[in-house]
Design goal:
The complex is a heterodimer. Chain A is mainly beta. Chain A is built from no helices and 11 strands. By secondary structure, chain B is an all-beta fold. In chain B, strands 2, 4, 5, 9, 10 and 11 form a 6-stranded mixed beta sheet that branches. A 5-stranded antiparallel beta sheet of chain B has the order 1-3-8-7-6, with no helix packed on it. In chain B, strand 7 and strand 8 form a beta hairpin. Chain B is globular. Chain B starts with a strand and ends with a strand. Classes of the chains: A mainly beta, B mainly beta. At the A-B interface, strand 4, strand 5 and strand 10 of A face strand 4, strand 5, strand 9 and strand 10 of B.
Chain lengths: 112, 111
């Protein structure tokens, strides 16, 4: 069964460094999303992406964040200058149409 | 702003018991509702999706119902098993496709 994959599974970085989290959505899906979950808290929406542009973003998704679909298969989330409070589990999701999102296993980001 | 609440926050039941998890949302203008399962440190597995025009969905021992007008959904798990132990998340989407999640119900099924 097709699935969303994410790399790396765990990323440790120092405050102020740039990180890129990678995702490979399900191949025929057209809608792509990033969510995050700080330990012990709710899963929060960051951004949605469709037709090569951002369709919606949350207040969390400020100028430090960017997304890109550099080729036909990858979908990336970049954090330009990481802060301690960026430590969280980051989930990528995709959907074929606007409903029914499938989530990847997540990347645990630890900022020290 | 949509708010999603799940009750109870945690639940412990003996194996074989039937149980109900509750989800409520403040804005009834939803497009669909999804129930997910999350194992510790893992990703989210979609269990059931109910579109706004539907009243319920079933998959195996799971049944989810939706009462959009009252802003409520329930997830019914029949004949619970230790392997059902996980956190169950409810999420709703409006006309935009983003999901708004609840805080989850942590379920433990004991032998």
């Amino acid at each position: 069964e097709p699935e969303v994959t994410q790399t790396p599974s765990h990323q440790v970085t120092q405050m102020g460094q740039e990180v890129i989290l990678r995702c490979v959505p399900i191949s025929n899906h057209l809608y792509f999303y990033w969510y995050r979950q700080i330990l012990g808290q709710k899963v929060e929406f960051l951004v949605s992406f469709y037709n090569n542009e951002i369709s919606e973003k949350s207040e969390i998704f400020d100028d430090q964040f960017s997304v890109e679909r550099p080729d036909g298969s990858n979908f990336t989330l970049k954090i330009r200058s990481t802060k301690l409070e960026d430590s969280a589990m980051y989930f990528c999701a995709s959907s074929e149409v606007r409903i029914g999102q499938y989530f990847g296993p997540g990347t645990r980001l630890t900022v020290t | 702003k949509q708010e999603v609440t799940q009750i109870p926050a945690a639940l412990s039941v003996p194996e074989g018991e039937n149980l109900v998890l509750n989800c409520s949302f403040t804005d009834s203008a939803i497009y669909n509702l999804q129930w997910f399962r999350q194992d510790p440190g893992k990703g989210l597995t979609s269990l059931l999706l109910i579109q706004s025009s539907q009243r319920e969905q079933t998959s195996g021992r799971l049944n989810a119902s939706l009462d959009k007008s009252s802003g409520r959904s329930t997830l019914y798990i029949a004949a619970s098993q230790p392997g059902d132990s996980a956190t169950y998340l409810c999420a709703v989407s409006g006309t935009a496709s983003k999901l708004t999640f609840g805080t989850g119900t942590r379920l433990q099924v004991t032998l």
